[in-house]
Write a structure and sequence with these properties.
CATH architecture: Roll
CATH topology: CBS-domain
Largest sheet: 4 strands, mixed
Order of helices and strands: EEHEEHHHEEHHEEHH
Structural class: alpha/beta
Strand content: 15-25%
Strand order of the largest sheet: 1-8-7-6
Number of helices: 8
Radius of gyration: 20 Å
Number of domains: 1
CATH class: Alpha Beta
Distance between the termini: 77 Å
Number of strands: 8
Shape: globular
Length: about 200
Amino acid sequence: MTSSYSRLHSVSLSAETPVYRFNQGLPVATKMKEPAVNVMTDLKRVEAITVGSNVLIDEALQKMIYAGVRLLIVINEDYHLKGVITARDIMGEKPVNYVAKERVAHNEIIVAHIMTPDNEIEALSMDAVERSCVGDVVETLRQAQRQHALVLDDDDHSRPIIRGIFSITQIGRQLSIDIPPTGLVQSFAEIEALLHPGN
């Protein structure tokens, strides 16, 4: 039986052919005065990296490492927000304090024990983001001393929905600033120099 399909033409690879890097559709480089959406991870275009609240924190950290992120959105079985957990939460003082207070082993701590719950999260509105520049987002994160911010929008039925994420590490990368993943103080100091040149 004859096939109605054709074989595709092949080409030889040259030495050291670069591999395409997924960039979420974001520009490789940006500037402080450019639109804030240039540095927002848009969950309409990129799948949110999520975790359940009953997952062990060591497993959550491994998921972050595998996905190359430093924040996981904590969801319930209906894919609704329960909170957020960051690498800083897992590797900082929160687990130590929880172990001391609750007298449990470190390897028994789950995400729910140290995450920031939804009722303690303040999100930015998509309307405000669309009217803002990168520098505005950096200043907002700096004043809050946070490395991440969620963005709230309305879905097709005018109900609130988590639409995006800002990450100071991602912003630094696009501003061509090498931000150490653990260095909140150094990170903001470097970015603040861009915000207020000559100070």
